[in-house]
Design goal:
Layout lengths: L10 H11 L1 E7 L3 E7 L3 E3 L1 H32 L2 E4 L6 E4 H18 L3 H9 L6 H44 L9
Antiparallel strand pairs: 1-2, 2-3, 4-5
């Protein structure tokens, strides 16, 4: 049985497909239709894989908006001035300075703990979109760990005093009630 000839694309159609969809060539069977697609970057692939690859183009505008929002948030946060009074001077400095200082402190702490990956991420967060959220979260966790030990100690003391209070209450309730002149 002779093999069916594969259809070839004209140069005009090929140029249009390349310009729009990054397709360099296609294998077309008269019986099955398109069997292979040659992508400009990834080479030959089945049409199903090419279709999945094109779905990335649908997601890109959404990702662009997300990244743009991250940098808009960054610009808004870095533009905030924090005022504080040192001997009633009313000094102001931008929040960005505090973020840089906090990132540097977090990086040094992570480097001291032997986590160079987190130390690098702390510095990179200054440039990445939504990096400030990461810095605030990391600062809160480290602050919580630093405050956690004294809080646990205070909770232990409260439990001790509550137990002592219960014992004193039970001891006081077990004594008979006498009139005031009897003491």
């Amino acid at each position: 049985m002779p093999r069916a000839r594969k259809a070839r694309l004209s140069d005009d159609v090929r140029a249009e497909l390349f310009a729009k969809w990054h397709i360099r060539d296609m294998e077309i069977s008269k019986a099955d239709g398109v069997t292979q697609v040659k992508h400009a970057m990834f080479g030959w692939m089945p049409p199903e894989d090419y279709y999945r690859l094109q779905k990335v183009h649908d997601i890109l505008p959404l990702l662009e908006k997300i990244v743009e929002g991250g940098y808009r948030m960054k610009a808004a946060l870095w533009g905030i001035d924090i005022s504080f009074g040192v001997m009633a001077t009313g000094t102001e400095f931008p929040l960005g300075m505090a973020l840089v200082a906090g990132a540097a402190v977090l990086s040094v702490l992570d480097q001291a703990d032997g986590r160079p990956d987190l130390a690098a991420l702390d510095i990179l967060a200054l440039a990445l979109p939504f990096g400030e959220i990461y810095l605030f979260a990391r600062g809160a966790v480290i602050f919580g760990e630093a405050v956690g030990e004294p809080v646990e100690r205070v909770q232990g003391n409260l439990e001790f005093f509550q137990a002592s209070k219960r014992e004193a209450t039970v001891a006081a309730q077990s004594r008979p009630i006498r009139p005031w002149w009897f003491f």
